[in-house]
Amino acid sequence: MSQLSASALSFTNPSTPPSTGLTLTKFHLDKPGSGEVQVAFLYAPINPLDLLVVSGKYPVKPRHTVPGTPAPSYVPGYDGVARVIAIGEDISPSAFHEGDLVIPAGLGLGTWRSHANVPASSLLNLTSGLPSSDVPARSDVLAFSILRTVFVTAYLLLEHSRESLKPGDWIILNAATGAIASAVVQLATLRGIQSICVIRDRPDPASNQAAIDELKRYGAHTVLTESELEESAAGIQGKRIVLALDAVFGASAERLAATLAPGGTLVNYGTLGGGGPAASMRLTSRVLFWNQITVRAFRGSTYLAQRTEEEARDMVVWLAGLVVQQRLRMPSVQLVRWGNADKDGVRRAEDRPVGHAKLVWEFEWFEQLK
Predict the structure, then answer these.
(1) Taking the chain, what is the end-to-end CA distance rounded to the nearest angstrom?
(2) Which residues are catalytic?
């Protein structure tokens, strides 16, 4: 087997903004070694988590580097979907086949590259896990690229943020047009849980209505703008809200906390509002003392670590099945063609306001691998 031409976006040292430290490197890839699988990536998202990693603000670092560079050049990208194109020795014949769709089995795989040789143990085989009757469409393959960072996170948020969520319960969440929030809404709907979605104020009424319509299609019961929530309680009257999911922090989180019923729970899983480690929020005595709410932080990797490898795999495959069966829909994303990519996609992600569609790398050989 001849060497394969490949490319990767990588960094040697953390940088802020992240794009300033990234370099597009082209290299040749040898055939996979013993225990390795060679893959061609199809889609890979540009997540806020990835930008934190490149800027040195996230504790889990990339585990893979570009071969042949004088100093270690780390490949970011914690989510994505790839297709198996070659299999090394000492791998069970039933574990992988050429053409199988795979995703990272854990954090740090490095998906911002065209091709890779990776340990078979670092991949989760979706093709072998799904029933043979579940044939993924192209849109499903795109959804697979965000299974771990979006759908798994959304599932774990609902499972672990509160001891018991029952059909008929109400939840409220901000940054609701984001990928994770829209996945939460869909999973909550499947469980009979009612959701109130809070979106940022948009100057254009048409784009505001488009966001509302999309969330309603996902199953949202009520959609409010941040200013509507701040100015009036009409949209939440008569609703006993037991869980608030906050991805913004600051004033937006304060507004969510004020809507909670006594004994409710506020969970923060992001700081899209900015401010970094010094960001703060204020909670009144009424919210904390009178209403006895619980405030918690959420990190998905902590809850994933509590599951066995088999349990985690079964959860991911189950979610993939929901996607193929059209019971979970892909949130809105914007594709960025990899091709001879430079750092433009990352720059666009850095400048992207809260609530805009997630950017996803689309690799140019998808058509060749169909």
Answers:
(1) 21
(2) 58
